[in-house]
Amino acid sequence: MESRYIHKQHNVSVLMYHIVCSAKYRRVVMDEQVEQVMKEVCLGIEKRWEITFLEIGLDRDHVHFLVQSVPTYSVTKIVRTVKSLVAREVFTRVPEVKKKLWGGEFWGKGYFVNTVGQHGGEKVIAAYVANQGNENNYEQLHKGQLSLKLF
Q: Fewer CB within 10 Å, N side or C side of the chain?
């Protein structure tokens, strides 16, 4: 999916964020089941809020989201919404994950966020997020060798 101009009554925006959230204790809990639940929850979030997931990429102990939203939602609100709804559904639908996280929390407390420019970095970041879990993804990104094939 690509970003788009969002037209509201008093503004037009293209606000995109690269958000990274890690599992509590950086435990290795991201697998195909968790990925499926996460993507379904994110589709539900898109229907209820003005938050669009352009890409979602999981690595073993963390997740990258490329998100577009509107100016009325702070990054904190976006992260809180995603983290709380994903955690609840993962624990409900993949209960063995809760056993790996002895504190009963799915996410670590913090997160990383970076703004993404529509005309320069969006495709590179999207490819990076889409290629999570692939060897040399980080090195390829920084050497400019990352393939821009998104789908």
A: C
The SS3 call for residue 92 is: helix
Domains of the chain with bracketed CATH: 6-117 (3.30.70.1290)
d(CA 137, CA 131): 7
List per-residue pLDDT tens for the chain, 151 residues long.
888 889 999 999 999 999 999 999 999 999 999 999 999 999 999 999 999 999 999 999 999 999 999 999 999 999 999 999 999 999 999 999 998 898 789 999 999 999 987 655 677 778 778 888 776 665 665 555 554 443 3
pTM beyond 0.70 = yes
